[in-house]
Amino acid sequence: MFYYFLYSLKEYSIFFNLFRYITFRAVGASVTAFLLSIILGPPVIKWLSNLSVVNSIARPHAEKIHSFYAAKGTVPTMGGVLIVGSILIANLAWGNLENLYLLLALLVVVWFGTIGFIDDLLKLKRKNSNGLSSFVKFFGQLTLGLGIGIFLYLDPGFPKLLYVPFFKGIAISLGVFFIPFVIIVLTGSSNALNLTDGLDGLAVGCLSFAAGTFAIFSYLAGRSDFAQYLSIPFVPGSGELTVFCASLVGAGVGFLWYNSYPATVMMGDTGSLALGGALGIVAILIKSELVLLIVGGIFVWEALSVMIQVFSFRVFGKRVFLMSPYHHHLQLKGLSESKVTVRLWIVAFILALIGLSTLKLR
């Protein structure tokens, strides 16, 4: 909105020329999303509390951790509506809505956020942890992933390549397999962040580091001069995703204001599925899918810990971890919730730095 109306006033004052710059609008989107989260946080939390949208701690085969979460049974969940709302408003205000990549990113946030919202509502109605079935959630994610995969595959200007970080000029042609690859990245990132969302502030804190890193990647990928100098793929138009990623950081940090230990609101699947999908679509559009494995390493490990645990128990009848996802294993090892969260934040920060190092180490 600002991009259209205020930039058009550049003839009257040089100040309005600022709105053409992605960096300026990215800062504006980040600050706007942050302030929206901070200002709207109390009324949204009160509204969710009045609706009795509270966190359910009763989960099958998870009795060991119920004692850690006794007090969380009264904490409202579904706070992801605050995150998604802040992201949408910030991008409507500061983004160039004629940019296809920005529209795709917003579509993923709304679509995945809606799936999570329905899941949270069903949990509220049933008053337990049984929301949408895994099949229905996966089908909803797969449908959008398939649609985006086909759309990008049919776009002759979009590269259907898998670029390998740390190596200059190495790119694997995916061909028609690009379509299932898009589905895997989108569903994988979305569900990985969802699994990480188990401790106060853990998921949204790690998300902020990853989104900040991708904001830098998006800006560079959208500039032919920087892309050529750094030997990274140049994707025309992807620079606008800098605004989107900056809004993720602002909304995430703003939500962390209320979600930090001890949390007064949980994001629920509404937020975790939307934010995970957001990271996935940005990685696809700027051709940094393998970099996502690095900067989103915490999410990857949390998901892997679940898969390893299930595989080991079913095949060998033994558990590798005391409990999965991995953050629960650390809790059962005796670490406090806040210590686990901060330590994993530190790891997420280091992984973000390693991800940034791939820009030059090629």
List keywords for this structure.
mainly alpha, two-stranded antiparallel sheet, 2 strands, about 65% helix, about 0% strand, globular
Describe this protein's structure:
It is built from 14 helices and two strands. It is 64% helix and 2% strand. Helix 2 packs parallel to helix 9 and helix 11 (289-295) runs antiparallel to helix 14 (337-357). It has a two-stranded antiparallel sheet. The mean pLDDT is 89. By secondary structure, it is an all-alpha fold. The chain has one domain (22-357).
Q: N- to C-terminal separation?
A: 39 Å
**Count of DSSP-assigned helices:** 14
What is the H-and-E element order? HHHHHEEHHHHHHHHH
What's the mean pLDDT score?
89
Structural domain count = 1
Quick structural overview:
This protein has 362 residues and is mainly alpha-helical. The protein contains 14 helices and 2 strands; from the N terminus they run H-H-H-H-H-E-E-H-H-H-H-H-H-H-H-H. The chain has one domain.
